[in-house]
TrEMBL record:
Native organism taxonomy: Bacteria, Bacillati, Bacillota, Clostridia, Eubacteriales
Record domain HTH tetR-type: where: 8-68
Name of the protein this chain belongs to: Bacterial regulatory proteins, tetR family
Keywords in alphabetical order: DNA-binding
Naturally occurring in which organism (per UniProt): Caproicibacter fermentans
Molecular function per GO: DNA binding
Residue spans binding DNA: 31-50
Top-level lineage group: Bacteria
């Protein structure tokens, strides 16, 4: 007997099932047939909502990036002075958020040993979501006289991408990364 569901519910169900299969088998070894089998639905139903496995992956990436960005933004008070903000952020650089702990399928998909490309794509996607908030805070810091650099928008982009680069750098402890990021922000913002 066919089960009829609202389109948004079905689409989310397919995405959630795909994430479980991707996490279990890996992206490259997963097929649309595997996803359909996981959900006990037809392949055609998968294709009704997603044109390809790549589109499902992109939706998973977007969902996960939103979770991480929103959680990190929620934990950050943009009301504090810029120096305090930098110290606060770099003192608690968390590489696994509470959202990630709750959705182990997403975590495993993007952070397992054989998914470095996916992990890097995730970092870049999260970065793009956070940059506008940092740009706005730097503009306000300039208006308040906390910083004097001219191009705050570029400083935000350089600072955030530099931070991501440090997160992806091998051979450093988290403490070393945090200190390097903190000092780089100070230098960039002429603090």
């Amino acid at each position: 007997m066919r089960t009829v569901k609202e389109p948004d519910v079905r689409k989310q169900e397919i995405l959630d099932g795909a994430i479980r299969v991707f996490a279990r088998k890996g992206y490259d070894k997963t097929t649309i047939a595997d996803i359909a089998k996981e959900l006990n639905i037809s392949q055609g139903l998968c294709y009704r909502y997603y044109q390809s496995k790549e589109e499902i992956y992109d939706a998973a990436l977007e969902k996960y990036a939103d979770l991480i960005a929103q959680e990190n933004l929620r934990k950050t008070s943009f009301d504090m002075p810029i120096r305090e903000l930098i110290d606060s952020i770099t003192s608690h650089m968390e590489f696994m958020t509470d959202a990630e702990k709750e959705d182990q399928g997403l975590y495993k998909l993007f952070h397992s040993g054989n998914s470095q490309r996916m992990h890097d794509e995730l970092f870049l996607k999260v970065t793009k979501k956070i940059i506008p908030y940092v740009q706005e805070h730097l503009r306000k810091a300039k208006e308040n006289g906390e910083i004097t650099i001219e191009d705050t928008d570029s400083a935000a982009i350089i600072g955030i991408y530099g931070w991501v680069g440090m997160c992806l750098t091998k051979g450093l402890t988290d403490e070393e990364r945090m200190e390097k990021v903190r000092l780089a922000w100070y230098k960039l913002l002429e603090l």
